[in-house]
Amino acid sequence: MNKKILFALILMGFTSLVVQTLLIREFLISFYGNELTIGLILANWIILEALGSSLSNRRSLSSKNPYLVYALLQTGIALYLPLSIFFIRTIKNIWGLTLGEGIAILPIFLSSFLILAPLSFFDGAQFPFGCRMLSDTRVKPLESAGKVYILEAMGFILAGPLFTYLLIAKLNAFSIAFCLGALNLFCAILLLKDKLNNLLTKSLFIIINILFILAAITFFGPAAKLQKMSINKQWRNQEVLSYENSVYANLVVTKTNSQYTFYSDGIPIVTTPVPNITYIEELVHFTMLSHPNPKNILLLSGGAGGVIKEVLKYPVDKITYAELDPLLIKLLKDFPTALTQEELEDRRLDIQYIDCRRFLRLTKSRYDIIILNLPMPSTLQLNRFYTQEFFGNIKSVLTPNGIFSFSLPGSLSYINQPLRDLNGSILNTLEDIFYINIIPGDSNLYLASKSAFKISPEIFLRRLQGNNIQSRLLTRPHLEYRLNPNWLEWFNDSLSGYKQTRKNLDLLPTATFYSISYWNTIFSSGLQGFFGTLAKLNFKILLFVLLLFGLGLFILMGIFPKLKRASIGFAVGTTGFVGLSFDLILIYAYQSLYGFVFHHLALLITAFMAGLTLGGWLMTKKLTKIKNDLSYFLKIELMIVGFCLMVGPILLCLNRFSSVEFSFVFFFLSCVSGYLVGSEFPLANKIYQNKIGAKAAGILYALDLAGAWLAALIISIALIPVIGIIKTCLLLAVLKIISSILVGFYKD
């Protein structure tokens, strides 16, 4: 095989993964880190990629110089990639949104579609032209699509670890973009070295590319300037003091006047030296005063910036502060204030740099008070701290009369349906484990314990005085107002029927769905009906619709026998759907159980592509030896069915142990999923080649991508957050059973 073509095709996959992962990270920061938006972003990438592939398929066959077209596509990616990063960082300015204002699903969808369009289209168009270049080197047309598929996947495999451990760790986004652009333009020059006949065209193209490469080589100049300019626009009206990526999140420190704000993936998590005094004092003191004599305190995230200071007003023996990201504490020390210095230097404070859930499993201590100070569960990373499994872990480390507290969004005027569902889901989940007192407000404070306990203004005042606690907020009138039993009665009336609300589990992130629904009622009220409809979906309805769909296809093929030819294409499309579904399922489950998919996103995708490469390579090698193509194809279909049925029980076991030591299983499952998908494509291409000729590769590739596009939309927005991961796996098994039956009825 021509080495230049080999390099170009591997680079195609390498570029695709780096671009996708880099831009997803940028989108997550701009859109406040909600993993479910990954599905929307991937959906747009995939459908645009499919469009590029399908529209370019016929042109690739008739092109007189496919090398020139391929090189131009590489040039387009190289030139546009830095612009796309800039657009993502300034997207809120384009929409006219202020810093801190949320973005609803529709703007996210439109924004990602428009920004990704050139990159995705060029990436998709490369595939058929890659097949054409390869077939021109006397590679059999039957094998060219499969080999391009494999080489592209090899690029993915190389990109995953390099991006995770080198590029993102050492370079900023624009530096990565310029380096990747230089690599693509260098490849374009190699491809065109002997392929451009017109001297002027050849010279101009090479000169343009050399200039860009020179600019990219000096990326510390232009990249640094673009980085600074885009960050300033992204965080307008604030002075950006620090912008860093840790292995867990993107952390930004801004300053307005004398006020510092620390952001994690775009979400403000610490403000100092003047925090939200009302929220912090109520969270800490209402919790501490619910216990007669708290001594051993556990803070699960969100401790620095006011919470620790208020806890230290009590005669406690020790405060254990579990915080996953050491970079956050480092930044707090790098930009100190009197508040944070007082907190972090106290001898009673013990900071543990560990995932909170892992800490709960490992600690031998028992705690009088556990305070969870995190935002509502609007992401899977946050949701894992509001699930039945997490509450069970909390109970195991509480003392007999210990108190566990956290807050959720509330209102003292009107609780709309999404807010009712969110609070109802968590309350319904929590009641299975604890006795609960609730203090309603703009933030509803949940106080939970192993045994029943009483709170009242009198109890709180007596303990305040006994501990000599100084507070401007906690006066008798304020306590009598906040603990007025009428508020609790009104709250209970507003949440009537909450027992019918779905409980929140690790593998059924109901609260994340309700949080997103609530978020969208604030920033895009027109979508309330859409989310209301989704909330009514259940497994039985979806199963019935899917079976009805399968029956309809079977009847149509019986009436119109020629449609049976489409069964292979349908199988490829459903396999694309299943493949991307498991890509998302394993990413979401990994985040739910371990909480740091931000770091391992590229590696999970790489594991999938490694399996895809192996499956495609082995199948391509044996294509000529397979005599009964259809029978072999059906076996692969049935293996995919078995995989769908196997994943659910495995995830349940992993959820039960929930130990990071077993995280390798996710990479193994990703690899197996990719292997099955990769095995099917070359064989499907062989079957179709006999029917429709050379254009089969582009058509099947487009069908594969179309199935993946549907999965990205349906899985992330509807299925996983509404019916959960386990039942979603069962629906995928049914879908592949349908495609297997249709393939079984296929006749030449």
Shape: globular
Secondary structure: number of strands: 11
Radius of gyration: 28 Å
Helix content: 55-70%
Averaged pLDDT, please?
A: 86
Describe this structure in words.
The protein is an alpha/beta fold and 748 residues long. The protein has 3 domains: 1-234; 267-516, Rossmann fold, CATH 3.40.50; 537-748, Growth Hormone, Chain: A. Helices cover 66% and strands 9% of the residues. The protein has 29 helices and 11 strands. A hairpin with a 3-residue loop joins strand 10 and strand 11 (443-449). The two termini are 34 Å apart.
Keywords summarizing the entry:
single chain, 748 residues, Rossmann fold, Growth Hormone, Chain: A, 3 domains, seven-stranded mixed beta sheet, four-stranded antiparallel beta sheet, 11 strands, globular
